[in-house]
Fold:
Amino acid sequence: GDCLLAAGFLTYIGFYNHTFRQILVSKWKEILEENSLPFNENLDLVVYLSSPSERIAWKAAYLPEDDLCVENAIILKRFNRYPLVIDPSGQATKFLMANYKKQKIVRTSFLDSAFVKNLESGLRFGNALLIEDVENMDPILNPVLNKEYQTVGGRRLVKLANKDIDFSPTFTMFLVTRDPLSAFTPDLCSRVTFVNFSVTPSSLQSQCLNKVLKIEAPDVEKKRNEQLRLQGEFKFQLRELEDQLLNALNSVTGNILENTELMTSLENLKLKAKVIGEKAEETEKVLMQVEEASFFYTPFAKACSKLYFSLENLANVHFLYQFDLRYFLQITDFVLMNGKKNNLPELEDCEDKSEAKNRLVPLMKALHRVVYIRTRRALKVNDHSSWGLRVAQVFIDSHPDTEFTVKDEQLQYVLRGKGFKNPQSVKGGIAKELELSSIGATLLGALYSLSGFENIKDDIEMNLEEWKNYRSGPAEANVPNDWNTGEAQTEYQQCLESMVIQKPFRPDQMIRTANKFIETVFGWNLAEFNANAHTLRHIVEKQTDEETPILMASTPGNDPSAKIDAVASEVFESGMSRKYQSFALGSPKDYDKADNAITQATKKGTWVCLKNVHLSPEWLQTLEKRLHRLKKDPSFRLFMTMEIHPKVPVTLLRKSSIIIYEPPLGIKASLQRTFNTVDGERVDRAPEERSRLYILLAWLHAVILERLRFCPIGWSKAFEFSETDLLCAMEAMDEWVDKIAKSRSNIDPNEIPWSALHKMLVQYVYGGRVDNKYDTARLESFVENLFNPEAFNEKFSLASLCEADEEKTGDNSVGRLGYVSPNVDGKKIETEQLARVVQVDGNKLKIVFLENYMVLGKERINLNATENWIEENTFRTQQIQMRPVIIVPPKTKYQDIRKWVLETDEVVVSNPAIVGLPPRAELMILASRATIMCQQLLRLQDVETGNAQEELNAILSASPDEHNEAGAVPQWMKDLRTRSAEWLEDFPKTMEKLIEKSDSIKNPLFRFMRREFTIGAKVLNLINTGLGHLVQFVDGEIKATNDLRQLVQELSKELVPKRWNQYTMEDIGVGHWILDFVKRIEQLNEVAQADYVTTPKPCRWLGGLFSPAGFIAATRQYVAQANSWPLESLILCVEIGEAEWKPNSFIFEGVVLYGAGFDVKTKCMCLTEKTQTPLPPSRFIWRNDDIDGVSKSREWKDKAPDVCNVSIPVYLNASFRNLLFDVSLPVQSALPVETWVQRSVSLSVWSN
Structure:
């Protein structure tokens, strides 16, 4: 039995991780028991298959000290088929090179020009061969792998290509891949022995424990190693004595009892065995004492393991976040070595080295600080909070003090929006008063159910007004009456409690509280970390070596290569030209130059910078393999710059030290960047008007970039606007200005081709990459407001705030809006036009019409062609003004502009209203970021049981009997089974059927609803089947399938299973997704019961349909068909708050208005500080434009009306990714259209 277990171990076990190996061995033992084959229950395969001396030799050859690596070393020694080693960390390669040094092991690769020569030499002379990067196997190895030997005249030969090569029996070969995701063909798998050196949590914990013991407790480590050596020797001696005994007994002839010599020999052996046995027992006792001493440092090792696998999980957040084991072990070594010298801030007060208990927690804090800071520079700014929270969570989980903890239920609520109990129901009136969506109400219900929060329900109901004010209050608003559970003992526990309350009420406050949580857990100051960030030179000289390329990734259009040039200049000074080379990649011609430069630099120890490497992803794969093999001078450094791009090889990312370069955010920072980049001589070139145009362009560029920060309300998506756009626009402007100026020092602003400038900026330079007509309209409004002759007025405003004059002063100051009848060629036109006051001189007003052109008959008239001075009494004042905020500088020389930028008030220009957005837009973005932060933190969690993914697959592959006997199903899966059963109870088993009549097919609503019911039935069936199988599996009734494995993995991570996701939906947790889907099915059943397709009068949830845009298209056809109207003449209008059905209308609920409010009195949209307003059930009515003239509401013959219509977009949800259709909404005509456009006023039909 022992032989069978050992044989199976050597043959099959190498591919799997440590956990799965244990599960397999236990399964094999069960099979042996079933077949009545005896085996040693306590068999230690490591001891059985290796000797102590071998293990000591392996340790001396740099084999990591953990069970997994020792098992792998055994397989590498006893293989029959040549090993294929999976070695992402490089530890196996290092061990093999050291262990087979006497056999003159040669390291090569298929890409090596001398590969065939090395292979022939190894085969002939019996050397060892280590072949790297075997992802693409060379067929030349087939005869060797197949062991196709032939004997000719006493010589043993193997055919290599067309040659017969002598084969030495001492030849051995190791195939190595560093890519853990490599897929090999079944043919190859059958001819090699897989040996997996991928690190696991338990193996890494063991390695890190050995590291910390060597540094912090060398006596304990020395004693432990000595006892392990003695223990091994004693076991070896006992085995020898057993062999001697067997030999003595075997050699005896005649009567054993009469053989005096034998009896004496047996007596001696017995005495020796007794002495050795006693000594072995003593070593066991000493070893237990040593293990107890080393157990003290287990929290440090546990933290190391958790931190590394959190780094691995960062790849689930963004493809760029790749870190290898070498990176982490360098940090661990740095902390331990500096800790030994008390050279860390955390250990400054630890003077007595012998007091280990005073050093452990400071050492752990130092480890977490260094890991956090060094990793943070490789992350985007928006991902810092989630990474910091994960680091803090690891510290709390690993802390030796059991009192240092947080409530897991509260943490799970922050992560998943659910505690350990079922959510309570929230009264409809409370949810409505607090303006909570259905998911918001579910979150609040789950909050009611958290232990410690039972009383918050009563507090909310009793103090509803205060909670309403908190929900809609300023950014720094406090929880009403400082409500808390009273259970938090520390500041960080109080922070977590605050995050729990903020999740349903004020998610915009969560990031600030999360940062405070991180600071209070560690006693850090994050602002200090930002202020004292390591310089690039420090990183190059102190934190990287010749083996680590430095990869600087940036957002599109931002080139960090200037920073590298500056460091090279600083380090090499006058010798820079000889010791630093840079190359811009992009074409194959550049590759040879770069290859040669790198080869030379590795020998000479110089620096090389490769720019724009994202343009050459295929070449980078070759480069990474070359870098891995090249011997490098310690002074060599390789820098690479790239835009963030998904096709850069993962192996290169893992090998590199990544620094993400994001330019500073904000209007002021953008202006400074522009005028630091542009040469002063260029700005000051004649004519003088050029510099004013540069200011306008710089401001436009700053506004465009700043609005990117507010996606999706700034722009509907993150368009790749960059500094290149700015430079292109400057070039075009210079060309036009130079043509007009003809060497003059001044030009007339009216000579500038403003229309051409508008077209260039809107359609080509910036607008070329915009694919949403409403984004184009936003861009156009900014361009037209800035680029016009008025921009050369002395007090031209770059930014104005549109404000209602609530005090109704009616004074006609600068910025006031009003209506004026234009005067063209001395002739007064009765049609009033909206105008803005730009200058006041006594009773005279200088105005600018907001619409540059109007059509009079067949003529198009430019209303602002000349200066417009009017009498004050001809200006019909409106209670709205465009208050100037940022005035263009009076002097526009280069130095004057830089001074103006420097003196610009950061607080003023950081107001979102400056770029046309609602004042609280920042809070909306913070709320969105908080949701993403929680999703990311969930992705960074450990695999449920703390082991690798294969354990899950092992459990899922277990037979039903094993669940009951061995308890193979872990608690987390049982919890998942409970949730699944609850979901199944909530789900209807079937759906109602649509009432179909003979002429139903002619009804557009019926055709649409039939598709909806098909999708609903399909998804419902998938969910019921999937959850049903999951429950049956956990109950031990069925075995797992691949689909079930995938389902369990996705549900355990709170992800919506891909098979269920048959329609476009917001990225939310699976719990909320299921609640949402149940509501959709219930609505479809109501549609069938009420025969909605025939009489579409009841109120419906538009966002609850699988295709809202399709339904609106169907309603359009329905109305056109019913009234015999042409489709193209129909315009969809919204009458907010009107829930009574009228012909051609449909009543919808669940609609949210963004960027504006709704005035119940005037029944118009109005300006508000709120970013979103949930609307009551409203009437969506189709109007015939040919009859009602909806599109001509802004065209009038004389006096302007008080109300007109604007067209706004309707999106699926708050992500603004899915534009569905347009609707027409009433607004006050005195409010400029640009205000609604720039505020990104829109509707969504679904909200979370």
